[in-house]
Amino acid sequence: SVYTVFRMVFVILVGLMSIHASKGLEFPVVFMPCLEENCLPFERALKERNGIEEERRLCYVGMTRAEKHLVLTYADKRLVRYGAHVMYKKTKPSRFLTESGVIKNVKTIK
User: What is the H or E stretch that residue 87 is in?
Assistant: First the structure.
């Protein structure tokens, strides 16, 4: 039936949005990638007055959008470009991973 086809298509669709746009919405599964220092919290926010508090609120908003499953990820290294130079830069997990109480010890999966 059309309903069955709609459900099949609906199940495999993935939506991508900013944390700001997700306020007030909920989803069965939420993926929050890039939970690294200088990504969340964003590097510029660390220099702004009250910037870290706003980033912390945004992280909380993102985490609380999940109805059933929340997947939090961070990279061990990031590919960074400096002009013509490309290199891998070691990253640190976001402070929000431990501050939130969701994760007691950050574990690296290799």
Answer: strand 85-90
Q: What is the pairing mode between strands 85-90 and 77-82?
A: antiparallel
C-alpha count within 13 angstroms, C-beta hemisphere, residue 24: 1
C-alpha distances (whole Å) from 102 to each of 1, 23, 58, 64 are: 42, 20, 15, 11
* pLDDT single digits (tens) 33-67: 889 988 887 888 878 888 888 889 999 999 999 99
Report pTM: 0.71
Per the listing, tokens 């706003």 go with 54
Beta carbons of 54 and 109 less than 8 angstroms apart: no
**Range 32-43 burial, b when 16+ CB lie within 10 A, else e:** beebbbbbbbbe
Torsion angle of C-alpha atoms 10, 14, 18, 23, degrees rounded to 10: 30
Single out the residue of 45, 35, 18 nearest to residue 91, CA to CA: 35
